[in-house]
Amino acid sequence: MTETLPGRADLAAGGIRSGTDDGTVDGRIRSGTDDGVAGGAIRSRADAGTVGGGIASGADAGTVGGGIASGVDAEGYRRALAVHAAGVVVVTAQTEGVPVGLTATSFSSVSLDPPLVSFYVDRSSTTWPWLSRADRFAVNILTADQADLAARFARKGVDRFAAPTRWRPGTLGTPLLSDVSANLVCTPHSTIEIGDHFLVVGLVNETRLGPATRPLLYHRGRFGRFLPHP
């Protein structure tokens, strides 16, 4: 079960699912456009396999899908997605000496051997053109007390890495957020364009565990915390 935290965070009506960076809502991830940090007005699609030296050029980059029409009602689809509770992470990287990051609830484990994880990024994300050029990235798994941090990395017009954000440079400068449940440092494995998102898969090279604590969850447009059954 989940317990709703105070405040709505004004992020999504229907659930953060995988980051766009414009601070608006459409039932998927929304991870704020910090024009000064995350790439400003860059709206490039960063098509899989075309950006050199980074995530978008990972092995097996490709395209999936096409003109498949499902006939499902879009609003009903968003409402159905909203009932799914999801964990919350912040994906961080450094590109050309500048730290970038976005909030995501689409994070998932993919494989134990090799250790692979994934997340989705909206094609309209203004952070993606910068993130896609990084040669490594970190997945920072947030705790129940870090709803404000999740909101910060999903908000436009702010320097996400300025105070009160607490972070330190990790392996080869990859930004690692402090006081999180875990940091997973990854190198790009593959990027696939699927529907209106990019599926990003990373090979985990390093893990850092924080103190045992409850995770931050996202459900029906609100942050909350997990309450275990007795």
UniProtKB/TrEMBL annotation:
Any one Pfam family match given in the protein's UniProt record, by short name: Flavin_Reduct
Q: Which GO terms describe its molecular function?
A: FMN binding; riboflavin reductase (NADPH) activity
Q: Gene3D superfamilies per the record? A: Electron Transport, Fmn-binding Protein, Chain A (2.30.110.10)
Q: What region holds the Flavin reductase like domain?
A: 81-225
- Stretch list, region Disordered: 1-41
Arranged from A to Z, the UniProt key words for this protein are: Oxidoreductase
**What are the TM regions of this chain, as residue ranges?**
none
**Oxidoreductase keyword on record:** yes
Stored PANTHER family: FLAVIN REDUCTASE, FMN REDUCTASE (NADH) RUTF
Query: What is the protein name stated in its UniProt record?
Result: Flavin reductase like domain-containing protein
